[in-house]
Structures are given as C-alpha cells and as structure tokens.
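[Q] Does anyone have a clean structure-token version of this?
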Amino acid sequence: MNQLVIIEIVISMALVYFIISTSISGILEIIKTIWSNDDVRLQMVYDATVNDWIAETESKPGTIVDFQKNIKEYKEGVRKYLENKLIQYGFVGIKIYPSLGYYPFHPALEPVYEFASQYNLPVMTHCTRAGVWFRGKLRQQHVLPENMNPNPVYKYDFTSQLKAKNRHFKDNFAKPENFVEVLEMEKFENLKICFGHYGGADEILNSKNQGHNTVGTNFYLNIKALMDKYDNVYTDISYSLSEINKIKPYIEADLQNPRCKNRIMFGTDFFLTLQENTEQKLIDNCIKNLTTLDFNQIAITNTREYLTSEYYKP
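[A] Here you go.
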C-alpha cells in the first residue's frame, strides 16, 4: 500500500484536530498569510495542517508510523487511532478530504468505513471544486486508481489527463459519484456520509442549466441524485451559505423534497469563511433568509440525527 496515500488520509482525518489544537492567534496569523497570495494560499493551508498535526501527535498514541507496516497492522492502527480520538478527545465523527490526492473508494479507506459503519459514526467528505488540492506529480495510482469495490460500478481511467494541472485534476478525486463504489458495497449500506458544501454555491447556481437530478458533471445535482438513491447520504450548506441570498430558492425547494428535507444540514466552514464575512454575520444572514421552521430543520433536527452514534448522543 502506498505510504503517501495512507499519510494523506490520516492527515485529512486530523483536520479538525488541527483547528482545535492551534491557538486562535496562530489561526489568525495563518489566515493573514495564506490569503495574501492567491497562488500559494491553498498549498500553505495543507502544509500548516501537516506540520501542526505531526508536531501535536509525535508523543501521542496513533502516530503515522502505526499505519505503514502491513494491511493487518494498518487496519488495527486505524481502529486504535479512531477509538483514541473518539474516547480521549471527544471527537464525534470523521472527515476525509479526497482533493488531497486520493479517491474515496481507495482500499486504504475500507477500515475507516468499517469502523464508521459499525458504530454509526458520521463521515464527512469535502465536496466542492474549491479548496485545497494535492501536491507533487500525478502518478499511476492517480490516473488508474485502485478500487475497494470487488464489483466496480464505473471504470476509472484518467491516463489522458496525466499532464493536467493538480488544481484541475483534483476534481476527479472530489466527484460525489465516486462514493457509489462505496455505497454499493453491502457492508457499507448503512454508512452515514455527508457531502460538505452541497457541491458549492457555483454548482448550485449553475444547475439550472442542466436537467433536474441529471447525473452529469454538476456536483450539486449529483449529490441530490445520491440522496435520492441512498437513505444515509447527507449534505450541508457550509461555505455555500455565504451566498445564501442567491441559493435560497434552491435550498427552499430541496427542503420541500421528502428525499432531501431530513438530510440537509446547516454549517459555516469556519475559519475559511472569514474571507467572506464574520461567522456571526453569516449565521444571522442565513436565519434572515430562511423561515424559522426551515432553519431549525437544518440546524437542529437534521444535524442531531447525523451526529448521533454509539459514541455521541447530542
């Protein structure tokens, strides 16, 4: 198993820990630096996350070394790592970030999904064309990926894109339909997965040019198609809520759809949304644009259901 893939998976799972363990002044300094240079800002977020996480976990159980010996030790390492964070640190779920350079159906993630399914843990995945992307050169594993599904639904061959820029190729990792490979596996039929950002405000607004729930290239429509087919697929409006004035009609319409109503959640995406507005103003504006009933549905009812697991009862 490729060590780089394993390390990137573990690092993305620790993203929330990075935010918790870094001081507010440190976070603000990082924000000030990364947003001053458009060309390097996203890569610097990645580097800061990696460096901070390594520094914080060197002397604690569940370090990167535990995951690199062989498949059996890797799976046991994943379980110990997750149990440690859930019990000792009070984590309530798992986040993955495929745009860092891996597919959500990569075999290295199988023990993560197994653990999440066993304890009804919520899994969240970054799902927008924006955000951080992977560094380094594209490799064989990127263009002809491994698939944990013994009966693949789709064929993945991106060899024609081997010379693509990373910022463009990353969309192949983030596509919501990639999760069909996972959700179609019987042992993961109850896996609870949330697609962050509802695909992004741009995708939501561009969806009017495509057929309703058409499985194509639109992230927003493809997320809705997954919600229609799978009972445990969720989404949230984090970061996208910065354009709530524009996406309001779509959110209201989806909350009238019985297949979506109970699985759309509120979120802000702090601290990244500070480049748009303060968190409080974003929240206030969202409350202003939605009815009390709708806001309570996405901020309380749906979120409580998604977060509930064997480890956490809201």
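[Q] Thanks! Anything notable?
[A] The first strand starts at residue 94 and ends at 96.
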